UniProtKB/TrEMBL annotation:
Name this polypeptide is given: Cell division protein FtsB
TM region(s), chain numbering: 21-39
Pfam families found in the cross-reference section: DivIC
Origin superkingdom: Bacteria
Keywords: Membrane, Transmembrane, Transmembrane helix
Amino acid sequence: MGTGPAKRTAAPRPRALTGRATVLIVVFVALALAYTYPLRVYLAQKSEIAQMEADQAAQRQQIALDQQELAKWKDPEYLRAQARKRLSYVLPGETPLLVINDPAGAARESGNKAAPATPDRWYDTLWSSVQSADAEPRN
């Protein structure tokens, strides 16, 4: 019985992926790729619908504001007030008074100096400063 040490035999290792597991993984990847495009289209359509609903709500609000404005214009008193304000209309027997902004005329009438002249354009100021710098004597 002493024939020597026992010979070690290698046990077969199980394969990491069997054929069935590989086929199953390929099917899952194919399904994922097949559902990606329709899912993307679905999500894009959902966002478009949400945007359109928001636009529609804003338009409804604008329509409500316009209807309120139209109701104001149907009131004769509001119409008279707007005619006075915008078109300077007066009722018969009233004396219209129109104020014109004329600072030079007001200064003449009050005896004060006229309003100061408007400043020169920027490029005129720049050119005059260049000319005056050129005219200065050099040391």
